[in-house]
Structure to design on (391 residues):
């Protein structure tokens, strides 16, 4: 299955490249593209087959994102957000999961940040439920999704009975239908334009209890021993970002090589590809991408191997987060250098090089791969009592 999905991802590269201008113009994925990607299984790569997923190892999921990003980073971004949002399927009641999977190729999206509240409140007919309010940003892929999940603090005196933490607010996810929320048209950005990462709000929306999933429920479920749920959560959520960045970096190097074979710079008689300075720049860029990629996948494999037997220790969690952040920062540097290497060719919006630069700059602003991750990781070398929950 892993080889099949990687081959499918490679087949998507030409189509995604051809439709990149359309994707950017719409500021979201065209619905036909999203549905076709879902039909090929890219939105359900992470979760176990028993929950409707493909159960692929995280390294393969990362590589799929890397490959798709060579075609279009926004498309790769939406599929990885959809895939990670399905991790919480394991915390849903069976009947609710069945409703979500009425369409096996359901398109999902979600925001993990706990930017809302779900307060226990009976429904009009006295049914158990919650009143949900909140505002969630960076809701990538939500314009295409049939179900959108959002992180909430759950206020429920009976939380302990439902897998929560007792009278204190527990953490969980609310599962919305698009009609439940107000999705704002505010995604006007330089990069990742086609990801549709808009803000959405819920204002006192009543949801049945089955649509609120407690995070701790997974630990009490039959899936608790699954390696996926033993992976460091933040590391798992962040790693596709680093992989997507590496895919853009590799595509940028390849694009420069292709352009340089025929481009003759103004005032020169030689092609750009005949210049020693470009030879050096390409070799350095290629080496940096390969080195960052090797580090990232080595750390993913180490964390996955540990997950077969138990939870990861601090060193593995730290290594995974820093390797992902390093992949992002290295890719941004490589993409920038490749843009500079071809001069005016890269200044036009239609240039893949400029698109990769804009997309990488926007991706690098995500808190999962921003430089404060390195600050937190570095603190653990000096302070044995440092709060490492962010790793």
């Amino acid at each position: 299955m892993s080889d099949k999905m990687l081959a499918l991802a490679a087949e998507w590269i030409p189509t995604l490249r051809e439709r990149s201008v359309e994707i950017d113009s719409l500021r979201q994925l065209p619905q036909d593209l999203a549905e076709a990607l879902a039909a090929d299984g890219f939105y359900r790569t992470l979760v176990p087959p028993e929950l409707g997923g493909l159960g692929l190892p995280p390294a393969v999921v990362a590589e799929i994102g890397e490959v798709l990003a060579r075609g279009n980073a926004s498309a790769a971004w939406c599929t990885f957000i959809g895939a990670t949002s399905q991790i919480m399927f394991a915390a849903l009641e069976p009947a609710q999961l069945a409703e979500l999977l009425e369409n096996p190729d359901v398109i999902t999206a979600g925001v993990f940040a706990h930017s809302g509240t779900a307060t226990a409140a009976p429904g009009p007919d006295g049914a158990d439920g919650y009143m949900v309010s909140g505002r969630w940003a960076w809701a990538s892929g939500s314009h295409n999704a049939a179900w959108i999940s959002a992180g909430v603090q759950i206020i429920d005196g009976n939380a302990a009975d439902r897998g929560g933490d007792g009278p204190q607010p527990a953490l969980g996810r609310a599962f919305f239908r698009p009609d439940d929320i107000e999705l704002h048209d505010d995604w006007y950005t330089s990069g990742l334009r086609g990801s549709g990462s808009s803000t959405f709000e819920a204002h006192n929306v009543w949801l049945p209890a089955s649509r609120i999933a407690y995070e701790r429920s997974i630990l009490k479920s039959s899936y608790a021993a699954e390696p996926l749920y033993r992976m460091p959560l933040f590391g798992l959520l962040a790693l596709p970002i680093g992989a997507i960045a590496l895919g853009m970096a590799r595509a940028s190097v390849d694009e420069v090589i292709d352009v340089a074979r025929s481009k003759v710079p103004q005032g020169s008689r030689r092609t750009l590809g005949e210049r020693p300075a470009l030879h050096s720049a390409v070799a350095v860029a290629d080496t940096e991408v390969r080195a960052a990629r090797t580090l990232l996948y080595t750390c993913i494999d180490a964390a996955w191997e540990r997950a077969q037997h138990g939870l990861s220790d601090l060193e593995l969690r730290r290594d995974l987060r820093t390797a992902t952040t390093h992949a992002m920062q290295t890719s941004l540097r490589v993409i920038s250098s490749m843009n500079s290497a071809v001069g005016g060719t890269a200044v036009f919006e239609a240039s893949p090089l400029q698109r990769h630069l804009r997309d990488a700059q926007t991706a690098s602003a995500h808190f999962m791969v921003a430089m404060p991750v390195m600050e937190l990781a570095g603190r653990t070398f000096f302070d044995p009592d440092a709060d490492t929950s962010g790793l």
The chain has a mean pLDDT of 93. The CA atoms of residues 154 and 170 lie 5 Å apart.
